[in-house]
Amino acid sequence: LVSVVALLPAAPAAGQAPKPSAPVIRDVVIDRAEVFDSLEAKRFWGFALVNALHARTRVYVIRRELLFAPGEPFDTARTNESARNLRALAIFRDVWIDTVTTDSGVTVRVRTTDGWTTELGFGLRTSGTQHVINASVQETNLLGTRTIATLGYQNDPDRTTVIVGFDTPRLIANRV
Description:
- It is built from five helices and seven strands, in the order H-E-H-H-H-H-E-E-E-E-E-E.
- By secondary structure, the protein is of the alpha+beta class.
């Protein structure tokens, strides 16, 4: 009986307030930045061109990786894991999650900076009279949706190969 009583939580002493519960998330603000900021884009026209060609990651792609929502108690572990989820997508140069505490609760600010996600490849090999030519293009963040699209071509003495690939996470009900 003594060991059972020791496991029970102690009641607060007279005049002592109970421990406060975790603050509630009131709002989640998502701030998406271009590949290059405006100062970089002004310094070199190529950076401005990259920003113009690149589709910024969509809000729903960022939101589906967050493990918290408005109305839930704030949890630092879930915030840190959400930042890891976003970094694991491998489409951002930087991910930053911060909070602002007010009397009414916590506002969570999620800031992402897109990275350049288009990869081009070209190869040429020769051996005597035989040639192998290959070319490929892969986009990891197609239209800002974190969809991977691949197109490749290879011509060698034995065959000609065309590779077409498409991979989108959580296609069905945002889960599968």
